[in-house]
Amino acid sequence: SVGGCFKYQKGYDIYSIPINEILYFESQNRKIKIVSVHQVDFFYGKLSDVVFSVSKYQFIHIHRSYLINSIHVSIVRYNEVVLSNGITLPISRSKRINLRDYQFNE
Fold first, then answer.
1. What value does the mean pLDDT take over residues 21-39?
2. In 3-state terms, what secondary structure has residue 56?
3. Spatial separation of the C-alpha atoms in residues 46 and 69, rounded to whole Å
4. Which of 44, 63, 66, 81 is such that its CA lies 20 to 30 A from the CA of 93?
5. pLDDT of 2 strictly over 50
6. pTM
7. Closest C-alpha to 73, from 51, 49, 89
8. What are phi and psi of 88, to 5 degrees?
9. Which residues are bridge partners to 16 per DSSP?
10. E strand residue ranges, 1-106
C-alpha cells in the first residue's frame, strides 16, 4: 500500500490500483473480485489478507464476502449499503455494528 495504492499479483504480474478508486472487494471462493471506478478484476487470495493489507485505510468489512471503501458509500440502510456507482451490497447482522461504529466515529 505504498503511496495509497493496493497491489495484487496475477501470475508473474503485479498490478497497482489507487486506494481511492477502489469501490469494494468481494470474496468469491478462492478468488477476490476487486471493483474500482474504472474496472473489475480478479485475483487469487483471501479476503482476510486484503482486510489486513488495507487496514490503515477507510475500508469497512460489512459482510463475510464484502469489504467496502467508505469514501464510496452513498447511502447506509439497515441491512444494505449503496455505493457511489449505484451498486447495493448487503450488510450482515454480525457486521452491522462495524458500520454503526464507523459512522459515529467519523
1. 96
2. coil
3. 17
4. 44
5. no
6. 0.89
7. 89
8. -105, 130
9. 7
10. 5-10, 13-18, 22-28, 31-36, 40-44, 59-63, 66-69, 73-76, 80-83, 88-90
Instruction: Specify which residues 13 forms β-bridges with.
Output: 10
Higher pLDDT, 3 or 41: 41
Q: Which SS3 state, helix, strand or coil, does residue 10 take?
A: strand
- Confidence category of residue 77, pLDDT binned at 50, 70, 90: confident
Residues 56, 59: Cα–Cα separation, whole Å: 8
Are 83 and 25 a contacting pair, CB within 8 Å? no
**CA 91 centroid distance within chain:** 13
Q: Sign of torsion, CA 29 25 54 68? A: negative
> In 3-state terms, the chain is what percent helix, strand and coil (to 5)?
25, 45, 30
User: What whole-number distance in Å separates Cα of residue 76 and Cα of residue 97?
Assistant: 12
Locate cell 454503526: which residue? Answer: 100
